[in-house]
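Standup notes
- DV: blocked on the single-chain target, sequence here:
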Amino acid sequence: MVIMSSPLTFQPVLERIAAEIESTPGRGRPADYIPALAACDPRRFGMAVAELDGTVYGVGDWRQPFSTQSITKVFTLALDLAREADELWEHVGREPSGNPFNSLVQLEYENGIPRNPFINAGALVVTDRLHTRTGDAAGTLLDFLRAESGNDGLAADEGVAASETANGDRNAALGHFMASYGNIDNPVPVLLDQYFRQCAIEASCADLALAAGFLARHGVRADGSRLLTRSQAKQVNAVMLTCGTYDAAGDFAYRVGLPGKSGVGGGIIAVVPGRCTLCVWSPGLDQRGNSVAGVAALDRFTTLTGLSVF
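- DV (later): unblocked, structure below
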């Protein structure tokens, strides 16, 4: 049943979804392999929708900052794509991986070229290239998120960054392996510091829904300036749809029908091109690293509103 008739009905839709989620058992488990995230309550839930003009609707813990983690990969991809255009795709692919997000398996038989920019290896390449072009990839990302969200208080959680550094051996292995193929420009320790600072940025559902708005506006930022061409915005959304939820992207597309990107902090952003952007947060994850309640909430949103790319 579609209950969406105008933008003004976003709030009751969100409230209905929150009530349904509250009564749903089984929320998954937080990301216990990052000790700083392991203590999060899996029953926390927030959801926000931002319209193209910056109007935001929210429910639950939608103003609560959380660890953005891999959601930031969307923004670094856009920032680097804006700087080097198609040259980026010579160093990272655009295909679903079919393997876990931190897998080393494909890199060897694909000569150090990651399958897509949203698995860890691909995100390391993108961060590396953005760092080469800006001198501070994590700082450039943070400035962008602050500007687009209108929240100057956004910052990285140093405790989370330290926790990831202390438990980052696999990411270090990915970086060194790609460096052996000449696909990393910067010293791997420098790259890892940038990458972990990037992933440790904290933001709320409201912040991220607003920050992702340029993807719904076909590449146009909140201030009216253009970050990406219309074609590039389409490319980012397409890669989100096919690769944005690790090796569960097919199921996410089937259930939700929107470009989306998840993070192991429990957040997911999603884009309705030409209409709005969403962010949902609930720390309990499924076995593939996606928020259980978050995917369910986005599934209900597209069902209730009829808003989908299909």
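- Follow-up: The first strand starts at residue 46 and ends at 51.
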